[in-house]
Specification:
- This protein is α+β, with helices and mostly antiparallel strands and about 80 residues long.
- The chain is about 20% helix and about 25% strand.
- It is built from 2 helices and 6 strands.
- It has helices spanning about 30-35, 60-65; strands spanning about 1-5, 10, 15-20, 20-25, 50-55, 55-60.
- The protein has a two-stranded antiparallel ribbon. Strands 3-4 form a two-stranded antiparallel sheet. The chain has a two-stranded antiparallel sheet with strand order 5-6.
- The N and C termini lie far apart (about 45 Å).
- The model has no long low-confidence stretch (mean pLDDT about 95).
């Protein structure tokens, strides 16, 4: 059994996330989101959907990117 790096729960069904050369261990998706999801640089919400990136900055959507002065970004429907 492994231990979740966020909540400390020792659990028989933990899973690993391999990202950017590191290995992370979690017991649930909510702990993985808490640790791994980027944060919108405008509204500070954790980005668990597609989000947008502009010039190395992350936003939850085009509205927040535009509010920060990014141009030419549109949401897709």
């Amino acid at each position: 059994m492994a231990t979740c790096e966020v909540c400390g729960n020792t659990y028989g069904m933990t899973f690993e996330v391999h990202a950017q050369g590191s290995v992370h261990v979690f017991d649930c998706f909510s702990c993985a989101i808490h640790r791994m999801a980027p944060v919108c640089e405008h509204c500070r919400v954790q980005i668990i959907g597609q989000g947008v990136e502009a010039d190395g900055h992350f936003y939850c959507g085009a509205h927040c990117a535009r509010a920060e002065g990014r141009v030419g970004i549109v949401d897709r429907v």
